[in-house]
Amino acid sequence: MSSQNPELTLFAAVPAARAQDGRLLLDDKFASGMALHARQWPGPVRAVMRDMGAEALPFASAIDPATLNFQVTLLPPDAPLETALGQAPGVILASADMTEQLGLGDAARARGLSVVYGIEYTLDTRLQIARIERGRSLPKKLWSMLWNLRQERGRRAALRAADGIQMNGFPAEQDYAAMNALPLRYLDNRMSAQIMATEAEVDARRQRHGERRPLRLIHSGRLEPMKGGHLLVPLAQALCDARVPFTLDIYGAGSLEADIRTGIAAAPQLRERVQLHAPVPFESELVPISRQQADVFVSCHVQSDPSCTYLEAMGCGLPVVGFANRMLAALVRDSQGGWCLPMGDVAQMAALIGTLDRDRASVMTHADAALRYARQHDFQAEFDARMRHLAQVVSRVSVPAADATLPQHGLAGS
Question: What's this model's pTM, rounded to 2 decimal places?
């Protein structure tokens, strides 16, 4: 391998397997993402994955490895990840969200490899997840929180020692960017330029607002307490009590599905306005529905994880109404594409939506800002920024630190 063509090795979070005929069993989304990495990286690209057996991948596709433009290294479930490290020159991209990958940095640097860690979840989000997880006793919740606190020390050490870090979302940037000399914030999402809302769709929505027709609210995502799913029916009830004309379409599934369905059925006024739908394919169904049959995206999300749902809704031309978790609050400040309310305050959210019903110009102003922002941060723009960052990490190995150009973290895709 020449110094001009360093290998990019990605340590995957998703499992894989090998079929009896030698083909690889891979998740379709993962395989397409790896293929994109291989097309844009100047050297070899390799994925390191745990072989969890075919039974762990019932919906995976069987792929002839000879047809892939990247290599796959399969490791037994209990094999040390370090055994899959290659030789210099090269760079590894590992996940600081996965505890077992935190030790890769030292081993990779010992081989002369550059190290980049990606991270999404902050400590406060991890603690929040542990605290509100359903079905776990208080002692188990406390143990999980203590375990996360102990792991954070190793996580921060790995991020400090890395040659670069890639942070998905504003909270991770706020907590970790200052620890590393080469940080990059990006906003992960699935919206390509081709599936963004069109000007014709924006005009149709503007005309509808001019006619003061009922606001069409939409929500999509997992119906779980940590996602605020338990607040959707109370929000709809508050809107009915305030006599706000609206409809609410909910797309998703989860542990709260039955409770939500029961809550809708128990109130005649909700049955007329609120519909619960099963999850639908993202690009072929959810995106067209959001672009053509909705006016405002409603989120009751209480976590601060970097949910891609916000930016994807903005790409459909929808402003976002939600609680001021750290991710959405920062996104709204940066984009002007929505509104934030105090955490968990359904009454204030309903009051705001009532105000928006009377001020359709504000709805469209925020919708326009949301779409502009999403276009600046579409999937390809964010992916390109991450690839440039990886290349810059490799290039810095051969130049003095004082002469290297630092990326402006927070400007991915801009």
Answer: 0.91
